[in-house]
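User: We ran a pulldown and think these components assemble together. Before we commit to crystallization trials, I'd like a predicted model of the whole complex to look at. Sequences follow.
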Amino acid sequence: METLQSHYHQWGAVLFFTVVYAAALLFVPFYKKMDRKPATAYLAFVLAFAIEMHGIPMSMYLISWFAGKSLPEGILWGHTLISQIGYTGMYLNILCAATALLIIGNGWYNIYHQYWSKESGKGKVVKTGVYKYIRHPQYTGFMLLTVGMILEWATLPMLIMWPFVAWMYYRLARKEERDMVREFGEEYIMYMKKTKRFIPFVV
Amino acid sequence: MENEQKFHEALQKLIHTAPEESIYDFMEKNTAAFFSTPGIAAYYQVLKHVDISASKRSMPKLIKAWLAFLSGDNAGLYSIMKYIDEAALSGVHESAFFYSLKAFAVISDDYAERLKYAKLAVDILPEKDAGLFMANAKLTYGQLLAGADRYRQAAEQFSAAHRIFYDMDLHFLAMIALVNELLNRYRLGEIPAVIDACSRALTMASSYKEETQDYWNIVHLPLGICYYEMNKCNLAIRHLKLAKASIDHMKLFHMHGLVELYLFKAYYLVKDAVGMEEIVKDTEAKFGHMNYIMTDLIVSMLRLMSAEPEGSQLIQSDIELFEVEYMKNRENTQDIVVEVLAFLKLRGLSDLITTEPLVKKLEKLRFTGMVPTQQQFLIYLAELHYRENRQKEALECLKEAAQLFRDYGICAAFCILPLRSLNLLEKVDRQLYRMLAGDIVGNAAAQPGALLSAREKEIMQLIAKGKNNEEISKALFIGIGTIKWHINHIFSKLEVKNRVQAIEKAKSLGEIS
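Assistant: Here's a predicted model for the assembly, 716 residues in total across the polymer chains.
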């Protein structure tokens, strides 16, 4: 069993988590400048997660210093709500990450083979695979990844950053939809009517 | 029709007795009355010889110009337009009325310019305006948007115009706006919604007095078209006939073409040669003298579709017309030209078209959202691919066409020609395949010369495949007793004694393949 102290100052682990989570970005095509902003925000989120979990729990020290007393484990540091739910958060994170990677992978696969297919010249509206249900699987994937991180190891910076990351991806999704309507016209409008933006059958 | 008559008489009386100024007063006061019935051409005839050019007032000129336009007198329209001074227009209503008309009347190849004027007319009025001029501006803008293949926006404008006209109790105009809205929504594939809207409008119309009911009969047009696309041709014919009678009666020449085209296609699918010939003669009489390319194309298309393959000598000029149109405009040619050339190619009557223009057209149709034509082109493309031994491409096209059926419930396009690629469809969508196989038989049954009923043919097909009664019963989900009953009928109709004879006789009569 890991001890709390052994959790910190493992810079290899910091690097590992950063690289693994950042790798998800590779499966999103960067073809316009605007795409980078949410990606940067996501990367910052990943860094905050990795550093506070395996590097130095900076925000915990800061809050304790301000409050004058140390926070109990599971509140803004350590495994989220560990005294209430134990390691459930960690398992949920693993589930979220696995789902997210599947969705992102499937989305990438379909986009790569249809929208970006070079040999057939022009791309077309992708409606297969995960795109049958949602229009922005990759962004759903990122939301899942970040929610999972919060479930595992919530810290104050992450809780503050999450709404911003989510909002940026929401805005990006809307902008991309406008671009798609310009590119594909009614075909995309009709596709939008049949699908949801992020969560199948919900939103 | 009573009010219409009174108004007409009042107008005529005034023209002959009153001074010009009071005629203008009358016109300005009764603007709505001029446009709220199909009697537009008659009013224009009365006003035609009133010399309005010297007047300082713009509204009477605008009214006369609109009447000229709506009566199809373009020469008259342009001569009045010359006297309308843009700078002398007073108030937003006159300006909107003017710019709407200018959107139609401007002589320009640049469609964007027309759209600009139509939009200006809407924008110039206060947003909350819900009067005649706003509704007219929206109706005009909708027409131009539809002409630019922007069906969704067009439908929105028509819908808004419909509401305004309806609230003003201008039923004729409300109907025009509604029918246009529904025709555009039909293009977008919103078949169930259009059918519901038509039924609602017809229910409401039946509670009105007789005089407005005739107007609302036009609602049978989008309804009939939807039924046609769903391959319910007998129902389509019933509704389209009603629509056609009203359109003919009211002389709504703007709606001609469409109703004839779909009524013809419905007759075509049920193989009603008499109905087809009737429509061909009717359109030849109506459009023959117009020398307008679009109507010429429609007439030629109908002649081509109704001709038997053996009589190809008679339709050679029609074939050539389409070939010339295509060679002239290539990529920019109208959908109907590509559609008919593909049809001719599949029937072996013209070899001009290749798959490439069909693919290009499809790309455009996907963008504009013209769903029924999209399906038709996909099917022709699939068939062309299939006949040139490109099974994979054919399958892709059929998949997309079948998806359009699942999404929008349309499938008439599958039945225009006997498809060799139909067996591929069995793998794509079994339900659609079986339905089509049944429908093709069902439609043929309405053919006057057909001996066996649709059900009997189905059974006969299975007998020819060597199935016994039990197998047939399982395949068609009916009892063995019923099968025996049907078979007895078949035998007596074919005047045979056993199955082997029946198969031979049915084949020789062309009842089964």
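The first helix of chain A runs from residue 4 to 7. That may be worth checking against your pulldown data before setting up trials.

User: Thanks, that helps.
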